[in-house]
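Retro notes (design track)

What went well: tokenization of the new backbones is finally stable.
What didn't: we kept losing track of which sequence belonged to which structure.
Fix going forward: every design gets posted as structure first, then sequence, in one message. First example under the new rule, 212 residues:
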């Protein structure tokens, strides 16, 4: 690396307090079923898929795809039980996305945003949706339209599970989500054994005190 050399980087962690964002030159682009890593090598399968037969099946699929040289690939947990056509379609989409990002990066010099992931609702559907989900409630009309359209792309037959929430009572109140969210950010976490842990984030580190 030389002074004034331009690099394409990806933000892996947002700025915290006085610390700037954490960036990396190892780019990874997550899709519905796979992750594409420009500049990477080889292929792999998510460690969360533990069944050896399924892991081998997915490895065979990913190795049979014609991924250009210079790209690494990983099958995500959501790729479990997916067929070759679905995984191939996802990787082709990610290759097109990378091509557009690289094209924007080379078009003009200077620091600027080249690509930003879709909003949280779409990412949640992309990462968490499985065929056993019976209902997805959205309380914003614009986000509902985006979510419905995205679902038509990834699984047309499941588009009907995306519904607009119209109840006058706020969704978070009706389903007691506020209490669940508050528990996520609590510094004191009770353990089933009767003890507890205390989580204290600081600028340099996150300390976890285990009390038995």
């Amino acid at each position: 690396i030389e002074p004034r050399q331009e690099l394409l980087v990806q933000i892996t962690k947002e700025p915290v307090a006085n610390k700037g964002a954490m960036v990396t030159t190892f780019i990874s682009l997550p899709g519905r079923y796979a992750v594409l890593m420009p500049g990477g090598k080889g292929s792999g399968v998510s460690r969360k898929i533990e069944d050896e037969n399924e892991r081998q099946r997915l490895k065979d699929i990913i190795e049979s795809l014609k991924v250009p040289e210079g790209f690494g690939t990983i099958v995500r947990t959501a790729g479990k039980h997916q067929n070759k056509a679905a995984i191939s379609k996802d990787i082709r989409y990610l290759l097109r996305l990378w091509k557009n990002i690289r094209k924007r990066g080379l078009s003009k010099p200077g620091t600027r945003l080249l690509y930003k992931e879709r909003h949280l609702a779409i990412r949640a559907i992309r990462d968490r949706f499985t065929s056993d989900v019976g209902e997805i409630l959205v309380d914003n009309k614009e986000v509902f339209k985006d979510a419905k359209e995205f679902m038509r792309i990834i699984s047309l037959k499941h588009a009907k599970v995306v519904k607009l929430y119209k109840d006058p009572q706020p969704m978070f109140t009706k389903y007691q989500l506020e209490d669940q969210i508050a528990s996520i950010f609590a510094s004191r976490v009770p353990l089933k054994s009767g003890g507890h842990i205390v989580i204290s984030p600081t600028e340099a580190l996150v300390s976890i005190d285990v009390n038995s």
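Added context from the reviewer: The CA atoms of residues 101 and 114 lie 6 Å apart.
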